[in-house]
């Protein structure tokens, strides 16, 4: 079993029984994210400067293996995407 906890939404604490997870052998991972104001400022900057990601290549879903091989070969510059 694996659980990822992304931030806390209420009163700065989580209602988790950590001993239960410890005894079960579960993997518990913490994922830290920034604050809301930082995200909003980033989104405003992206919109203001019309920033767009650099896309190296888009593969059809049926070619997902080729997309992964292209990515692993490190021949790309920018994002390697799979369309669906």
From TrEMBL:
Q: Which domain of life is it from?
A: Bacteria
Per its UniProt record, what InterPro entries does this chain match?
Answer: Zinc_ADH-like (IPR052711)
The family database entries (Pfam families) matched by this protein are listed as: ADH_zinc_N_2
Q: What is this protein called?
A: Zinc-binding dehydrogenase
Q: Which organism is it from?
A: Chromobacterium phragmitis
């Amino acid at each position: 079993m694996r659980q990822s906890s992304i931030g806390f939404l209420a009163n700065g604490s989580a209602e988790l029984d950590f001993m239960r997870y410890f005894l079960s052998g579960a993997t518990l991972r913490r994922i830290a994210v920034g604050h809301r104001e930082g995200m909003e400022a980033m989104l405003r900057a992206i919109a203001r400067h019309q920033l767009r990601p650099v896309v190296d290549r888009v593969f059809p879903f049926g070619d997902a293996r080729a997309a992964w091989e292209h990515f692993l070969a490190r021949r790309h510059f920018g994002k390697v995407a799979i369309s669906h």
